[in-house]
Amino acid sequence: RSLKKSRNAKDIPLPEVPKVIDNGSGKRYFRGRLLGKGGFARVYEVTDMSTNKVYALKAVPKVKLSKSADRYNKIETEIELHKSLRQRHVVGFHGHFEDEQHVYILLEHCSRKSLVQTLKNRGKLTEPEVRYLMFQAVQACSYLHAQRVIHRDIKVGNFFLNADMELRLGDFGLAVRLKEEEKKIKTMCGTPNYIAPEVLSKEGHSYEVDTWALGCVMYTLLVGHPPFETKSLRETYNRIRNNEYTIPSRISDNAAKLIKRMLKPNPADRPSLKEILADEFFTKGFFPNRLPGTCVTSSPKWSEYEKS
Ligand SMILES: CC[C@@H]1C(=O)N(C)c2cnc(-c3ccc[nH]3)nc2N1C1CCCC1
Questions:
Q1: Does the annotation count 153 as an active-site position?
Q2: From residue 287, how far is each of 165, 293, 303 by CA, in Å?
Q3: Cβ atoms < 10 Å from Cβ of 51
Q4: Cβ proximity of 42 and 29 under 8 Å
Q5: Is 55:94 a contact under the CB 8 Å cutoff?
Q6: Ligand 1: which residues within 6 Å by Cβ?
Q7: CA of 280 to the centre of ligand 1 (A)
Q8: Phi, psi at residue 275, to the nearest 5°?
Q9: ipTM
Q10: Which of 153, 171, 210, 279 is catalytic?
Q11: Which atom of ligand 1 is nearest to the CA of 58?
Q12: How far does the centroid of ligand 1 lie from the alpha carbon of residue 57, in Å?
């Protein structure tokens, strides 16, 4: 065993999340299976012991870390921001509380997980499925922008599906609310997945970074991989700076046109979210009003589906 005192987070064992978690005001949650880990946070499936409702509980340890200051504040800002949002395609925020070891966030349970799993199972999705999913994604983002919130980390992994195959945008860890007079954000801590060129060039960024990321999500769902993906981050950043990407010819003209509009290098040239919702990609072509759960694992045979 190393004689050194543990100097960094990796060595400090994470505190246990109790089997029964009390929210401090009479509600208790039974801890179920671990859904996943993100950074220091662990996410459990929990059941409200008085209503039997199931939630996703994010438990963030209050480990005494030198840099825990911003980490703790981060979770505080994430809570302040997410708690103020309510829209049918934004992940439901059902409360927050803490005990000596953790800060807890109670979130909507999305039993069909994120689009990462769907894409892993399917490789890529059909245009009607992307029409259905992107329409909800753009609506969620349009709501955020109306609240002067920029998500800043829109990606396939932050879109979740509930039991009814409805889309929910989550994870406000990098989100920011613009102040009244504020037009642009100068700083960016943390690296978003689909980073826009104006964030790379540090010239200030605003709502358009979400439009860019939505374009990357749409491309990824249709093509099966992100538009600027390479084996090295530096190379990927170069491609983003040079707006270097190709759209396979099998992608329909309407889909390709919309992707190109959303991936304009100059943020001012990107369409507003309202314009996107009115784009031909959404108004022309088969638009399913719901998706069967089987879409998470196998491609739909639209013919039989169109009848229902
Ligand atoms: C709280 C983290 C994140 C999330 O934000 N939500 C809303 C969520 C909901 N249901 C689920 C879920 C229900 C059943 C399986 N996963 N997962 C969610 N996640 C996952 C957990 C692990 C990585 C991201």
A1: yes
A2: 15, 16, 13
A3: 8
A4: no
A5: yes
A6: 35-36, 38, 43, 56, 58, 91, 107-111, 113, 160, 170-171
A7: 33
A8: -60, -40
A9: 0.99
A10: 153
A11: 1
A12: 8
| Cα atoms in the Cβ-side hemisphere of radius 13 Å centred on 190 | 15
CA 250, 255, 257, 259 torsion-angle sign: negative
What is the C-alpha to C-alpha distance for residues 186 and 201, in angstroms, rounded to an integer? Answer: 11
Give the residue, by CA position, lying nearest to ligand 1 atom 23.
Answer: 36
pLDDT tens-digit readout, 80-100: 999 999 999 999 999 999 999
Q: Is 190 left (phi over 0), alpha (psi -120 to 50) or beta?
A: left
State how far the Cα of 110 lies from the Cα of 114, in Å rounded to an integer: 8
C-alpha 107 to ligand 1 mean position (Å): 8
Residue 178, Cβ neighbours under 10 Å: how many? Answer: 16
Its pTM stands at: 0.93
- CA dist 73 and 208 (Å) reads 26
Tokens for 161, please give them: 């599906």
Provide the mean pLDDT of the chain.
92
